[in-house]
User: What shape does this take?
Amino acid sequence: QQQVKQSPQSLIVQKGGISIINCAYENTAFDYFPWYQQFPGKGPALLIAIRPDVSEKKEGRFTISFNKSAKQFSLHIMDSQPGDSATYFCAASIQYNTDKLIFGTGTRLQVFP
Amino acid sequence: GAGVSQSPRYKVAKRGQDVALRCDPISGHVSLFWYQQALGQGPEFLTYFQNEAQLDKSGLPSDRFFAERPEGSVSTLKIQRTQQEDSAVYLCASSLNSAGGKNEQFFGPGTRLTVL
Assistant: This one.
C-alpha cells in the first residue's frame, strides 16, 4: 500500500517534443505529490509538486496532471530540451506525518537534438 | 550554508568494516532525513529526525544501521559490519519544518558506498 509505481522506465524524446511520465499510488492518505529531477552524481532536486485538491499545476514547461479517483498523476514536459535529460522520480508523502517521501522507481529521460 | 553537504562523497569498505557517513543540513532546518538509493532505483526512506529526536527509524534495514543527530544539526549514519548488499548511495535531505506544511526536502549529493 506504500508503493508508488512509475512508468516508463526509460524515455527517448526528440528536442521540442513532449515527455510524459506516469505514476500510480494505492495509499489514499497521501496528500503531497512531488516530482524530483536527478542528474548523475547529484542528489534529487524538487521540480514541481501538487496536492490532491487540484487537478493540474503548471510551472513553465512542466505540468502535473492529477487524477484523484484513479489514484494517478503524471508529469508533462513541454518543448523538451537536451538539458532536460535526467532521471525523474515521482514521490508521495503524508504531510501531517513525518513527510517521508515514498519514491517511484524512476524514469530515465533522454532528449536528442 | 549553500545547501546540504555530505561527506565523504565516496567510500569503499571491506566487508565487515564499520563506516560513518556525515550529513550537514541547511542551517536552521529542523527536519533531517536519510534515504538509501540502490543503483537504478528510487531513494528509499531510512530514518527521520526532528531536531535531535529520531522520530521514525522504520526504514532502517537492520540493527547494523544506526543514525544520530545529537545537537539537532549535523547527523551521522553509521553502518556496522558492512555487507555487500549495503552498497548504495546514501542521501541526506533536510527541510525547514515537518509540521504538515509545504516542506520541500533539499537533498545533498549523497555518499556512494561500495562494499567489497
User: Anything to note?
Assistant: Chain B is about 0% helix and 45% strand. The CA atoms of residues 49 and 55 of chain B lie 6 Å apart. Chain B touches chain A at residues 4, 31, 33, 35, 40-45, 48, 55-56, 59, 91, 93, 95, 98, 100-101, 103-110 (CB under 8 Å). The longest strand of chain B covers residues 88-95.
